[in-house]
Write a structure and sequence with these properties.
12 strands, about 375 residues, six-stranded parallel β-sheet, globular, four-stranded parallel β-sheet, binds beta-D-glucopyranose
Length: about 375
């Protein structure tokens, strides 16, 4: 999508929402005068420590404000209790809708029951909320496809279909309390597993990833770069002796990829020489720079602006009681029900298309990337 098209699309979106929320200022004043017809939308984000959530929160907040809604945007420092308190406050303030990017997808049942009792609708943002009937909609990128794209990238780059190999692979997975992590892993592993079984991909650290839940043994809690770095250090120290080299690392996202790259660099791996392929997700700034410097092979870009646009439309339709657009009514079973979802398409970005995909779309300025 061209930059001008995107800007136009965003302006048009805000205008559409604003037109359909024409009575919002009245509702605002009613709210301040103690009326019950608030037009508050609560936005609960997990953490400021990852670049993407800052962008996600700011964009959605901006769209909703332009459309006449009052918002409460909160970040919870990756602390579940803090997120629960924030949601309780939003409920006490009579929010109409809660948009929640959860930290622990199974910990919000009780607070969402309070929301349901107060007739507040809930939209799960990016991450599904599990084990509760009180989640109305889900908007995300196609999480399984994210992992599949990472797996396919590895297969193509290494020439595994042409019988090349064996290559040494180190697999990582995301935080096990995040419902997305399993989807990312499964998407990638469905592609890579046949090559592990045929011996073309070897896992020197000995991780056995055969059972349904085995991915949890390679999960990095809280998606922390430092933990991923320490884990990679351990694996290199313990299993890569006598000149053995890491050839490829399956990293589910950019925060892990950053720590893994730091570990590899500290162990003397050099881009253009023996540096392994590393996958990623999010197109974070530091990682995009690493891609340009040949320190990360790819990232799966999820244009979070499009997620915000979609969620803003869902919020608006929910408040007005009109039909909420979804495009997947089967994939996301949260253990209690299948949550109607809207899935957006993720996109692979490699060095050669940083400019066309990330700069021309306005996601980054050339300046910011040093281009
Ligand atoms: C998101 C990813 C993100 C990760 C860590 C996941 O739920 O889908 O985009 O990298 O959380 O914050």
């Amino acid at each position: 999508m061209s930059k001008s098209f995107r800007i136009l699309a965003s302006v048009a979106m805000a205008a559409t929402l604003a037109a359909t929320s024409a009575c919002s200022s009245t509702r605002d004043s009613e709210e301040t005068s103690g009326g019950s017809t608030s037009n508050l939308v609560g936005i609960a984000m997990p953490t400021r420590s990852l670049e993407r959530w800052n962008n996600d929160g700011a964009h959605l907040d901006d769209l909703l404000k332009k459309a006449g809604y009052t918002t409460s945007l909160q970040y919870a420092d990756n602390k579940v209790d803090q997120q629960i308190t924030q949601l309780e406050n939003m409920i006490n303030q009579n929010a109409k809708v809660l948009v929640v990017a959860s930290i622990d997808g199974t910990a919000l049942g009780p607070v969402l029951e309070k929301a349901a009792n107060a007739k507040i609708k809930v939209i799960a943002y990016d991450r599904l909320i599990n084990a509760t009937p009180n989640v109305d909609y889900y908007a995300t990128f196609d999480n399984y496809l994210v992992g599949k794209l990472q797996g396919e990238f590895i297969v193509d780059k290494l020439g595994l279909k042409d019988g090349k190999g064996p290559f040494n692979l180190e697999p990582f997975a995301g935080s096990s309390d995040d419902n997305n992590a399993k989807f990312f892993f499964n998407g990638a592993w469905d592609v890579l597993k046949p090559y592990v079984e045929s011996g073309k991909l070897v896992i020197p650290s000995g991780k056995k990833l055969v059972g349904e839940e085995d991915w949890k043994t390679i999960s990095i809690t809280g998606w922390k770069s430092e933990t991923a770095q320490a884990e990679m250090d351990n694996r290199i120290n313990s299993f890569y002796t006598g000149g053995k080299k890491v050839n490829v690392v399956l990293s589910p996202n950019d925060s892990l990829a950053l720590g893994i790259a730091q570990s590899l660099e500290s162990k003397g791996y050099k881009p253009g020489a023996d540096y392994p392929l590393i996958t990623g997700q999010d197109a974070d700034l530091a990682n995009t720079k690493n891609i340009l410097a040949d320190k990360q092979a790819m990232t799966v870009w999820k244009d979070t602006r499009t997620l915000g646009d979609q969620v803003a439309k869902m919020v608006d339709a929910t408040v007005k009681g009109t039909a909420v657009e979804t495009n997947d009514d089967k994939t996301y079973n949260n253990g209690v029900k299948v949550v109607p979802a809207y899935l957006l398409p993720p996109v692979v970005v490699v060095k050669d298309d940083v400019k066309t995909k990330l700069v021309d779309s306005g996601f980054y300025t050339a300046d910011k990337l040093g281009l």
